Every structure is written in C-alpha cells, then in structure tokens.
Amino acid sequence: MYKASVRALLRLAVKRLNNGDPSLLLKMAAPDAELMFPGNNSWAAMYRPVVKGRQPYATHRGVDECMSFAQRFVDEGIQFVIEDVLVNGPPWRIRIAVRVHVYIPGADGHDRYNNRAVAFLLARWGRLVMWEDYEDTERVAALDYE
Questions:
Q1: pLDDT exceeds 80 at position 27
Q2: DSSP states of 66-127 as a string?
Q3: Angle at Cα 17 formed by Cα 92 and Cα 59, nearest 5°?
Q4: Which of 36, 81, 87, 128 is the most buried (most CB within 10 A)?
Q5: Separation CA 75–CA 98 (nearest Å)
Q6: 61-119 pLDDT per residue, tens
C-alpha cells in the first residue's frame, strides 16, 4: 500500500515542479539530503568541482543546495514527463527509480532541450536522503552553451 502512496506523491511533486513550484519535492527531503548529478556541466559544478571516481559524489548537499538545483529547473522551464516509477524496500529504506523524459519547449514548437533520464532515490521513513541522476550529460553540457 505504501508503495502506491510513494508513487502518487512523487508524481504530484513532479507535477508541481513542472508548474513552477519545487516546494513539495523539497519538503520531502531530509535536512542532510544529497544529490549526485554527473558530468562536466554547470549543473554538476554549482557548488563544488566535479569529482570523478567509482563512488557516487554528492554535487549538492543539504536542502538549500538541493532547493537551488530544483529552482534552476523552474527558471530554465524544464519539464519532466514520468514514464515509470519503481518502488521497492521497507519504509526505513525505500528505493525508488524514476524514468523520465526531460525537455524545454522552444518558442518555435521544437524542443530547445530534450533528454532521457533515470533517477535513483533513497528515502527513509518518507524523507528523501539521496538522489542520483543518470542521463546523457553531453546534452546537459550543450545546454550550458546555448
């Protein structure tokens, strides 16, 4: 039952983010939440230099840095279309995988930006503690030069 609730809450949070309000997504975050956004791009290097290695590297730490990241989605006009949400694990270690396509609509009817992504999230007792993003980072870097 709680897995359906997690999926519904995540879909609602993304819908609000698409409408310019990242607050629900951030209310779900624990104070020490971490975000891992890979690649050589301005999104990954907002707060610290990119570190490459085998282990995940938190590019954003804490609610304030995560809020700044989410606000940038809003400011850029990025839209998310959820294709699938997978939820597994007990409430004290909920693992969530979200497959989306991401785009910025252009004034001419063509996408100014588009990409596909999978985000892996970890939540404990309903609080988001970790978000790791997987997408074509070359497209993300190209967006920096538009």
A1: yes
A2: HHHHHHHHHHHT-EEEEEEEEEES-TTSEEEEEEEEEEEE-TTSSEEEEEEEEEEEEEETTE
A3: 60
A4: 128
A5: 22
A6: 999 999 999 999 999 999 999 999 999 999 999 999 999 999 999 999 899 999 999 99
Sequence-ordered list of residues with C-beta below 8 angstroms from that of 64, at least 6 positions apart, any chain? none
Output the pTM of the full model: 0.90
Indicate the burial class of 4 (C-beta count within 10 angstroms; 0-12, 13-18, 19 or more).
exposed
Q: Which structural domains are found in the chain, ordered by start?
A: 2-144 (3.10.450.50)
Residue 8: pLDDT over 80: yes
**Which region, left, alpha or beta, applies to residue 113 given φ > 0 means left and ψ of -120 to 50 means alpha?**
beta
List the beta bridge partners of residue 96.
87, 121
